[in-house]
Write a structure and sequence with these properties.
mainly beta; 10-stranded mixed sheet; globular; disordered N terminus
Length: about 200
């Protein structure tokens, strides 16, 4: 499946308020989204260059889908957000917000905008998946609801917490804290102190 994509660059000043992603395009998707079939899909890319201080910390809170954080050699972030919903009106209510901090952290949060709607959107009918390319030496705080949470090729460790999604850590240096309630937790090529636990799932090292 090929999604319409757009890339745009942003240099964020330290005092700049949060930035909301604009959807590049949407179209009928060939596969069902949750309980809705057919659905619509939109994908957006955002390149974020550090303004002043380097990016030392990346915080991601995505209760609506998967998160993959991958280390790269550049100083900035590249965020790819893929949104899925049963219809265009619901798709327009899916939000991805980026909030820069003067001290260096970047915060990325997803949500469903209630707007003027009184009709609640079932979680099973919407999804936002995030792929974040981040500087290797940034510390990562990642959280998901039932989505997959991955940390790959990073050098400063992180804290990962998923309510009911799997957690994967691969080729990461630095201290790692990783927890999930009832899914698998997999750690491979981790160089540092590890605190990991799954209440009702398997832990593989």
């Amino acid at each position: 499946m090929t999604a319409a994509r757009v890339a745009f660059a942003a240099v964020l000043a330290a005092a700049m308020p949060s930035v909301a992603f604009a959807d590049s395009d949407s179209r009928a998707a060939s596969r069902a989204v949750g309980d809705a079939a057919p659905g619509v899909l939109a994908q957006t890319e955002l390149d974020v260059a550090p303004a002043g201080k380097r990016i030392t910390r990346v915080e991601v809170d995505n209760p609506l889908g998967n998160v993959r954080v991958i280390g790269h050699d550049g100083p900035g972030l590249r965020i790819t957000a893929t949104k899925r919903a049963p219809d265009a009106a619901t798709l327009a209510r899916l939000r991805v917000s980026l909030t820069p901090d003067a001290a260096g952290p970047m915060r990325i949060i997803t949500a469903v905008d209630p707007g003027k709607e009184t009709r609640a959107v079932p979680r099973s009918q919407v999804q936002i998946d995030l792929v974040i390319e981040a500087p290797r030496d940034a510390w990562v705080d990642g959280r998901t609801g039932d989505g997959l949470l991955e940390l790959i090729n990073m050098d400063a460790g992180g804290e990962l917490d998923s309510a009911s999604g799997a957690v994967v850590v691969r080729n990461v240096s630095g201290p790692i804290t990783a927890h999930t309630v009832d899914a698998t937790l997999s750690l491979a090529e981790v160089f540092g102190i590890v605190e990991a636990g799954a209440l009702a799932g398997d832990v593989t090292l």
